[in-house]
Design a protein that fits this description.
Blueprint (H helix, E strand, L loop, with lengths): L1 H6 L11 H14 L1 H9 L5 H12 L4 E3 H7 L3 H13 L3 E4 L3 E4 L2 H11 L1
Antiparallel strand pairs: 1-3, 2-3
Length: 117
Amino acid sequence: LVDRMNRARRMPPESSVTVEDVEAVIPMIFERGKNYFYDQYRAQSGGPAGQALLDQMARSPQWTLTRAEMSAIVPDESELRRTIRTMTRREMIHMVGDDRYQITVPLFARYVAQVSG
């Protein structure tokens, strides 16, 4: 964002970052951070169960799933508990309300939606 603002000679306080500016740099963020995002999605999510949950969350409104929806994706209860615990501990997801989990960082949710198609 700073590079974009500097190239356009847009300086505060006369100019501020817009939503359009943020949207314009997201592809570059994914490209420059591809190893980080890839590692989070593939390795840090708890394996295939975590990836499946993230894939579905990224396609869901507000990037959330209920515990019941998660159980339908990962039917083995012990594997589901382990995966939720792993992703919660790594702050990839967090609990919203009594029974919903949400991807914590919207940028990561957008990455998952992009790679999971």
